[in-house]
Write a structure and sequence with these properties.
By secondary structure, the chain is α+β, with helices and mostly antiparallel strands. The chain has six helices and four strands; from the N terminus they run ββαβαααααβ.
């Protein structure tokens, strides 16, 4: 996945296999599943909300609590169904096992965002 501010010369590339945390956070924000083949654009405020959602996903002390958060009634209402269930069944164990990697990735993403994204700017995500 390629991420770039609307203006500027910086870009960040992340393998789609390592984009899982942001995939889930973006899906939560846009209320539908993130599509790695699509292009997206988020204002700085929206991107901040997405990063906060990613942090929220990482806050759970047990996989069961994360599972309940992403598949429970609130999530089903938000997403219009149980869209996260296949993701959790397929990649949930891998995510949980590598939770610290994703925590570091989020910390790095926040630092990069602070460097390249002005408060009135926007961030583009380019799909395949």
């Amino acid at each position: 996945m390629k991420l770039a501010p609307e203006r500027g010369e910086s870009c960040l590339q992340i393998a789609v296999s390592d984009f899982l945390l942001f995939n889930w956070a973006i899906s939560w924000h846009i209320r539908e599943l993130f599509d790695e083949y699509e292009n997206y654009e988020f204002s700085a405020d929206q991107w901040g909300d997405i990063l906060n959602t990613a942090e929220n996903i990482l806050r759970f002390d047990s996989f069961d609590d994360l599972f309940d958060y992403l598949t429970g009634p609130d999530a089903q209402h938000r997403m219009g169904g149980n869209d996260f269930l296949p993701w959790l069944n397929c990649r949930g164990a891998e995510f949980w096992k590598n939770k610290e990697k994703y925590r570091t990735q989020l910390k790095d993403m926040r630092a990069w965002t602070e460097l390249v994204l002005p408060g009135n700017g926007s961030l583009k995500i380019y799909g395949f």
